[in-house]
């Protein structure tokens, strides 16, 4: 009789240990997916008031960089303004990152005769986000888009 009680106790402890160990086991799949950072980019349709081909191309290029969290970009015929957000721990290298990416974007778009401006400032990023939303919803005219891009460009120049 006592032997059966011990057997039940051993089985109960074994099952409890298995459940406990599998419940506390680190899931390797989640570790892999956490390392893949999602970069927030919005592709603007080319069927808008302005063809956003250059903006979408810049977003695609910059979204492949590890040091970038979010990319926004809007272009007109002669001006491309790109806004990027970087992780907080990268803020110490902000000037270096800005300089390198600006140079890379200038070189990439030099054949398109496009003036490229890159910003990391939150105010510029918010302005670009508003502008992208207006473009996606077709709530902006060509003239207004040019005016707002020139305003954002002016804000960028004031900061430097």
List keywords for this structure.
mainly alpha; about 55% helix; about 10% strand; three-stranded mixed sheet
In which order are the strands of the major sheet placed? 1-2-3
Distance between the termini: 87 Å
Helix-and-strand structural type: mainly alpha
The geometry reads as elongated
What order do the helices and strands follow? HHHEEHEHH
Radius of gyration: 26 Å
The percentage of residues in β strands lies in 5-15%
Q: Name the average pLDDT.
A: 82
What share of residues is helical?
A: 55-70%
- With helices defined by DSSP (H or I, 4 residues minimum), what is the helix count? 6
Ranges where pLDDT stays below 50 over 5 or more residues in a row are: 27-37
The largest sheet, given as strand count, sense and whether it forms a barrel, is: 3 strands, mixed
Number of strands: 3
């Amino acid at each position: 009789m006592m032997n059966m009680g011990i057997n039940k106790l051993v089985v109960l402890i074994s099952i409890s240990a298995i459940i406990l160990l599998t419940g506390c086991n680190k899931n390797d799949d989640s570790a892999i997916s956490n390392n893949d950072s999602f970069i927030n980019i919005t592709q603007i349709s080319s069927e808008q008031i302005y063809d956003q081909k250059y903006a979408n191309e810049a977003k695609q290029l910059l979204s492949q960089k590890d040091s970038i969290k979010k990319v926004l970009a809007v272009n007109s015929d002669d001006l491309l303004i790109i806004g990027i957000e970087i992780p907080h721990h990268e803020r110490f290298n902000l000037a270096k990152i800005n300089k390198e990416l600006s140079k890379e974007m200038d070189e990439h778009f030099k054949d398109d005769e496009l003036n490229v401006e890159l910003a990391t400032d939150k105010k510029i990023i918010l302005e670009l986000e508003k502008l992208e939303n207006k473009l996606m919803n077709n709530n902006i005219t060509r003239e207004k888009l040019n005016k707002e891009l020139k305003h954002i460009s002016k804000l960028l120049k004031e900061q430097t």
